[in-house]
Amino acid sequence: xxxxxxxxxxxxxxxxxxxxxxxxxxxxxxxxxxxxxxxxxxxxxxxxxxxxxxxxxxxxxxxxxxxxxxxxxxxxxxxxxxxxxxxxxxxxxxxxxxxxxxxxxxxxxxxxxxxxxxxxxxxxxxxxxxxxxxxxxxxxxxxxxxxxxxxxxxxxxxxxxxxxxxxxxxxxxxxxxxxxxxxxxxxxxxxxxxxxxxxxxxxxxxxxxxxxxxxxxxxxxxxxxxxxxxx
Length: 231
Hints:
Elements: E1 2-11, E2 14-24, E3 28-33, H1 40-47, E4 55-60, E5 63-64, H2 70-76, E6 78-81, H3 93-98, H4 113-118, H5 120-124, H6 135-148, E7 153-157, H7 165-180, E8 185-189, H8 193-199, E9 202-207, E10 210-216, H9 222-230
Parallel strand pairs: 3-8, 3-9, 6-7, 7-8
Antiparallel strand pairs: 1-2, 1-4, 4-5, 9-10
């Protein structure tokens, strides 16, 4: 579904990504792992059109994304849930969800019932402002807002960061449900090793802007993967 080929990215004169190759298949969770500062978030931003990449190729279902803007990436089917969630604090939960309509045709601009089935708390708090929600509730809102766009690829950047354990469990269950529906590629960046290891079907480990290790779940043990992530 999503293919990243020899991608490079710079911030000014500093090269952050150095020829990254990665694929994320539909019906799978692909975990992108590594220590802080190795380029994981930069890669997600490049895929989502939030930061221009310098070279290489991004493609979705075989079609070249060709240096997309954020709007172009979203319309092509890439949904991004950023680290820090970025909900609109003064807008209600419903209004936050409706911002996902921007890249949809007029006839598709409605909140599906499935959103509230996945995240019942959002229906209960529909008129509450985004800034008044807890961190875990904001994370659920950010994921739901991304799903409103009917994506083909869902990019999740640190979805468990700063969230209480019971909400982490709920988010893990939602990710598993989305994976099992079979038509969505999920690319997960996560520092919570056990959370990522419990969900992912394939693992990529980054170090200094490059993919240094990759394996499917069947090819790697927890101990070996933990060693690779820690290098």
